[in-house]
Amino acid sequence: xxxxxxxxxTALLRSVQTEGTRLEQAKTDLTARQKxxxxxxxxxxxxxxxxxxxVTTLQADQKDLTTRRQVLTDQQTEANRLLKQLTDxxxxxxxxxxxxxxxxxxxxxxxxxxxxxxxxxxxxxxxxKKHTTTKHGESAGTTAxxxKKHTTAESKRLRLTYPVPSQTRITTAFxxxxxxxxxxxxCASGSRVVAAESxxxxxxxxxxNSDGSYRSYGRYIVIAHDKxxxxxNSVYTLYAHNSRRVVSAGTHVHRGQLIAYSGSTGxxxxxxxxxxVRTPTASYNDCVNPEIYLP
Length: 295
Known about the structure:
Blueprint: H1 2-90, H2 101-117, E1 125-133, E2 139-148, E3 183-186, E4 192-194, E5 199-208, E6 214-225, E7 236-245, E8 252-253, E9 258-262, E10 272-278, E11 287-288
Antiparallel strand pairs: 1-2, 3-10, 4-9, 5-6, 5-8, 6-7, 7-9, 7-10, 10-11
């Protein structure tokens, strides 16, 4: 019986040892899992902290962006206010910028044909008559004399005057914006527009659309001058956007003679005179800065 009990005790001891080993392994595995979970928890905590910092940064950036957007909006509003104020003060009217190349080519052809059609002539001799009357109303006789003008190089030299006598300040300069081929003189509608120098009117016409509205230069005039620039080149001047034209093609005009009244016909934002100088031909490609020739 003792032997049987001893055998049972040995078996029980082995079973206990085996269970102890299993429990020890389970404890080791649990410890490892706890350590792994702690590592992951630490990593998650770090990620959460980083995400919170990122959110804070993004919120600050968004606030800064909102502030900047408001500043830009305020600046734009102020710029628009100042621009309107400047426009109202100066009445710096000019042209719309939508003149097409086809328009320019068509106008060039019209002006070129007109330049060929009309020629400028000058008188080199004059005849004067002198008539005197006596105290009693009797004729004392008439004498006639013929004199020749002694034309000097200076008298043949071009000397332009301002096209709008009431406005000598240029409100939009030559090339003041892309494609601006002349100088603008903002003025009240109906202001006098005069010939900048003597010459022959080669174009006095209206540019209109199919519906009758004005386009491009609107009611415009071109003069071929009978004087040349300093190097002997021919000079043409153009006056655009008039409300009325008072001279016809073929008319010879003198420096300062009324040729039109200012307006806002064609591609125009308000009443003004658009003034061009073209040399040595009447082509749009030969537009030069009018300020070179003005006083």
